[in-house]
Design goal:
2 copies of one chain form a homodimer. Chain A has about 150 residues and is mainly alpha-helical. Chain A has helices at about 5-30, 40-50, 55-65, 65-80, 100-120, 125-150, and strands spanning about 85, 95-100. The first copy, chain A, is built from 6 helices and 2 strands, in the order ααααββαα.
Amino acid sequence: MNNDVSNKSIVELEKTLRYIAGIIKRRGRQILHNYPITSPQFIALQLLIDGGDLTIGELSEKNGLAFSTTTDLVDRLEKNKLVERIRDTNDRRVVRIHVLDKGKRIIKEVIKKRQDYLGDVLTNFSKEQSETLNELLHLLHMEMNSHRDNKNE
Amino acid sequence: MNNDVSNKSIVELEKTLRYIAGIIKRRGRQILHNYPITSPQFIALQLLIDGGDLTIGELSEKNGLAFSTTTDLVDRLEKNKLVERIRDTNDRRVVRIHVLDKGKRIIKEVIKKRQDYLGDVLTNFSKEQSETLNELLHLLHMEMNSHRDNKNE
């Protein structure tokens, strides 16, 4: 822990981030009510779209879920024709999860609704405030990623 | 949606918040590995401590979970002696959920570990940056709350 950032600041930040994450989670769940996917399935599809065709092992790691849980999740997504299992072109022993058009379309729509919600919430933010918030959150995200690498998780 | 905040800014913010929330969620899950509670139980206990002794209905609303799901969750917490059901002193027909000392102690420890993690992550933040981030997230949180009230959720 550093000396610059006060303990009070950290306590407040942990609390505010916890509350904001909770609100976003509930809002995300409401949005998903109109779609044939669950919250864990949304997270998995979004990780697969952003990260490319991952293996079950890679997806488990990014998800923070057990291998068996991820396998069950992918089985259900495949049954609903949202993903398919494909062979890696370089190493045919490796199986990767590929998101199908139906899955991509759903994720695109869901993320658009999440953006619309944030747009509504930011009505009273100035351009400068939203840009500063973006910059600082981007920095926080990078620090979280590098902290994760350091700990070799 | 307003005209000040650009669409690009909203798209970025949605994405960064989604990723940060995901990282915090996974970290939170790791921290809970050492405690006898699940993530949904952590959220419920934290809402009960911050919000006072809530009824099952109030807790369901804050949680965004079905009444029956919340009832099951509280049953498990009560069985593990983390909460108890008590009668409202003003209206004895009303049952409230009260967090017991064991539950309070666990939440305090878990939140301390989450703060320690954020303190580590913020090592490269200046005092000013962390304070600005706190202010803007606090504003975002308030706007999210007022937006929720407007929609009468």
